[in-house]
Design brief:
Layout lengths: L2 H6 L8 H9 L4 H12 L4 H20 L5 H19 L13
């Protein structure tokens, strides 16, 4: 799977993508890399931070579109991208749908 292509989309590659790709490829590394990714993100200017947020959104969309191909991998991609978005930006642009069971 080409995570760099998903993160980059039609834009330019950012150095912060490298540790994110490590998190995506190795779920056990994610807890250790969360803070370094956050600290690297806090050094980005507003425009680059916006570009990074869209990269995380692209990951979430990719996971949703391909979830039936590999459910476990899709859940992992979505989890990593949502946790990073929530920690760095405080909110999720695409909040998960909560169904009302009443």
């Amino acid at each position: 799977m080409n995570y760099l292509r998903i993160l980059t989309g039609t834009g330019t590659q950012l150095p912060i993508y490298e540790p994110v790709i490590t998190c995506l490829e190795n779920p056990r590394a994610f807890p250790d890399l969360l803070e370094p990714v956050y600290r690297q993100a806090m050094k980005l200017d507003d425009e680059t931070l916006d570009q990074f947020r869209f990269a995380l959104l692209r990951l979430q969309l990719y996971a949703d579109i391909h979830r039936n191909e590999d459910m476990e991998k899709a859940m992992h991609i979505r989890y990593v991208s949502q946790v990073l978005e929530k920690v760095i930006f405080g909110t999720l642009v695409m909040e998960p749908q909560v169904s009302d069971s009443s």
